[in-house]
Amino acid sequence: MVEASFKRYDSSELLEMNLRSHLDVLFLSNGMYSNVAESGGWYGGAERLDQLTRVNANIYESHFNNWIYETDVTGPSGYEINLASGIEVDNVFTAWGSGALAPSIDYRNGKVLFQSDPGSSAVVSSEFSYKEVLVAGPDAEASKILFSSFKDNVGANLGQVPSGTIKQLPMVVIDPQIRDFTGRQLGGGQIVDQQVIFHVVANSRSKVNKIVDLLSTGSYREVVQGVDFNNTPTLFDRYGGKLGAYQNFTTLQANNSYKWEKIYIDDIKVRRGVSENMGVFTAEIEWDVRFHLPAGG
Questions:
Q1: Which residues have CB under 8 Å from 294's CB, separation 6+?
Q2: pLDDT in tens, 53-90
Q3: Higher-pLDDT residue of 181, 199
Q4: In which band, very low, low, confident or very high, does the pLDDT at 129 lie, cut at 50, 70 and 90?
Q5: Are 124 and 51 contacting, i.e. CB atoms less than 8 angstroms apart?
Q6: How many angstroms separate the CA atoms of 33 and 96, rounded?
Q7: How far, CA to CA in Å, does 74 sit from each of 45, 98, 226, 253, 272?
Q8: Is residue 220 classed as helix, strand or coil in its secondary structure?
Q9: Contact status, residue 36 vs residue 49, Cβ threshold 8 Å
Q10: Strand runs (DSSP E) across 42-189, as ranges?
């Protein structure tokens, strides 16, 4: 069976994409995010916006990656997720895409693009919520540089993080392993049994423990409805902002036009408990997952 194509996601890629989306929802639903806001904010103060760093005339960079863009997780009462709706330039708010500046946002990299220069002396700031856990595949740039210098995604000393820093902890790297195929007599196709290892890295033992708990006891025997990302509309523009056709992962899961196979989490093992190396805490969790690959799929 040949399913590789440079123009379409194959089952290995779809498995990784669905697990990544599933973990994003799982972590947000369990409060693993922080707010940077003027009230009820990330630092508990009355005024704590993130002042962005000027990269060039059109690009400003936040101290935080992974701005939240999902609208299907709101957070607990009194600490709701704050979706960024625009940017402040010299204390004047401008909504995304409006005015002469027409700002747009690259959510994953925490960067703002202006269509015209706000001026080298302009103070550009924003309030938003960001994901505390970065979830990535093994080929992501963030995974490849994981063991260089780290960036904790908490800007306690705003203004002191160098522009261009893209490393973030905590991080979960999804690492699919070898798979076995079993033919189906009824209905055709094959059953795919696959091991998936989650490499958990954080700068504190407590953070690793919380992630391990969610990936182990909190996920046992769960069934994840897969999404066929080959059929979904394009969700993000080339700058990393949401397009008008954007839909949340849970919305895509419920739409019959976009459904892929169900992903069954049959077994979960803690391959390696929490250990420390040079001040970094790591652990490994293994999921044994199963899904149906239709004939010719």
A1: 188, 189, 261
A2: 899 999 999 988 899 999 888 777 778 888 999 999 99
A3: 199
A4: very high
A5: yes
A6: 22
A7: 21, 26, 22, 18, 33
A8: coil
A9: yes
A10: 50-51, 53-54, 59-61, 86-89, 92-95, 104-106, 111-113, 124-126, 128-131, 134-136, 171-183
Bin 187: left if φ > 0, else alpha if -120 < ψ < 50, else beta: left
* Beta partners for residue 125, in sequence order: 51, 88
What is the per-residue pLDDT across 135-172, written as a single tens digit (0 to 9) for each? Answer: 988 777 777 666 555 555 554 444 444 444 455 789 99
225's tokens: 């409805």
Q: What type of residue is 264?
A: Y
**How is residue 185 written in tokens?**
């007599």
Q: Are 23 and 135 a contacting pair, CB within 8 Å?
A: yes
As given in the structure block, the two tokens for residue 115 are: 């269509």
Q: How far is the C-alpha of 98 from the C-alpha of 105, rounded, in Å?
A: 12
**Confidence band, pLDDT 50/70/90 cuts, at residue 7:** low
Which residues have CB under 8 Å from 289's CB, separation 6+? Answer: 15, 193, 194, 195, 196, 263, 264, 265, 266
How far from chain centre, in Å, is Cα 185? 38
pTM, to two decimals: 0.84
Phi/psi of residue 113, nearest 5 degrees: -110, 125
Which residue type occupies 165?
A: T
Quickly tell me which residue has 């690009």 as its tokens. 59
> Using omega within 30 degrees of 0 as the cis cutoff, is the peptide bond preceding 170 cis?
yes
CB burial of residue 182 (10 Å; 0-12, 13-18, 19+): exposed
Type and span of the H or E element at 275: strand 259-277
Return the closest-CA partner of residue 67 out of 106, 93, 32.
Answer: 106
Q: Is residue 289 within 8 Å of 265, Cβ to Cβ?
A: yes
Distance CA 96, CA 241 (A): 10
Contact 91, 99 (CB under 8 A): no
